[in-house]
Amino acid sequence: MLVERGLQVAGGIGIVAMLARGMGLEGFAHFQYAQAVVYIAASFVLICGSEVIVPRLVADPDPTAQHRLLTHGFGLRFAAGVLAYLLIGGFLLASRQGPEFWVPSMILGLAVLLREPFGIVTAWMQAHTRTRPNALFSLTSLAVKAGCVALLFWLGVQSVPAYAAAIVLETVLASALLGLYYLRRAPRARVAMDTMLVRELLGNGALFWISFVLMMGSRRIDQLLLKPLVPLGEFGAYAASMQILDNYVVVATILCAGIAPVYVYAQPSLGQARRNILKIAAGMTLVGAAGALAITFSADWIVHLLYGEAFASAASLLQLAALASMLIFADVALTLLPIYLRRPYLVAIKWGMVFAVTIAIDVIAIPKFGAYGAILGYAVANLLSVLFGIAVWLREGRRAAATREVNA
Description:
The chain contains 15 helices and no strands. It is mainly alpha-helical. It is globular.
C-alpha cells in the first residue's frame, strides 16, 4: 500500500508539472477550476461508501448475497453519479461559465459516472483481502494517464480538453479493469431490486456521506469563490500552489493509515488509545512542520522546477500556504479518536464547522486580499479542525475520568 501510494503521489506531481507547462498559466487555471467543480460534485457520489459495504460483505460470505449487495450498491452509486454530473452542468449554467470552462468540466465530470460505481469492486476486494489486483489496476491506469499526458506535452499540445480527456482516461481504464475482474468471478444469478435494502444502505451511510460532502466541499470551495474575483493568472498561481500542497498532505494520510491499526484501533482501552493518539499527533505535527518549512524555504525552486517561470507568482503563495498545511498533519492524527469511538457524527460536525468558516472568511477576505485571502481561509480552517480534535480528545478524557469516579 505504501509503495502504491508513494508512486501515485510521485506520478501525480509529475503529471501536474506537465499539465501546467503544457497548458500555460491561463489554460492551467481553466483546467484547475474545472477540476474543483468536479471534485465537489464527486462527493455526492460517496453515498454508499466502503464503511457500509465492507462490514456487510464480511458478515455474510455467501457469494449470492454479496453479489446482491454489490449490485444494489453499484446502482445507488451510479444514480448518484448521474445526479452529480447533472449538478456540474447546472452549476456551470447558473454561474454563466464560458466554453473554456464548460468543455473540460464536462469531460472531467465523466469520472463521477465511473469511479465510485465501479469502485465498489474495491470494497469487495477489501472484504476478501485481495488488495494486490486493485493496486495493479491503479498503477496500470496511472501509467497510461502519465503516458498520454507526456505524449501531449511532447507534441506541444496546449488544448485543455485534450489534457482533460487524458486525465479521465485513467478512470475509464481502472473502471473497466475492476468491472471485468469482478464479472469473471461473480454469480450469474439475476438480482431483483430490494427497496428495503436500498433504504438500509442509504440510512447507514448517511453520516459518512455528509462528512465526505462537507470535507470535499471545504477543500475546494475556496477556488470556486476565488476565480470570479481575481485575474485568471492569479487564480492559476493559487491553484498551482495548492496542487503542490495537496500532494504533500497525502503523506499525513499514508502515515496514519500505517500507524493507526496497531497503535489505535487495536487498543483495548480508551485511555491507551487516547495516549497513543496524543503521541501520534505530536509526531505528525513535527513531521508536518519539517516538511512545511522545507517547502517554504525552497518554494521558488519548487515552483520553477515544476511549473516554470510563468508561475513565478505562485512561490509566495506556496510559502504561506505551506506553513498552514502543517496543521493538517495534526488534524489527521486527532481524527483517529472519533473513528476509534465509532462516532462519525463528530467528523460530520467538524467538517460542517470548517465548511461554514471557510466560506465566511473567503467571502470577506478574498475581495480585499485576493489569493492571500483564500490562504487565510485555508489556515483558519486547518486551525479550527485541530482545535475541534483537541476538544474531543479532552472531552473524552473527562468522560473517562468521571466514569472511573462513579465506578469507584
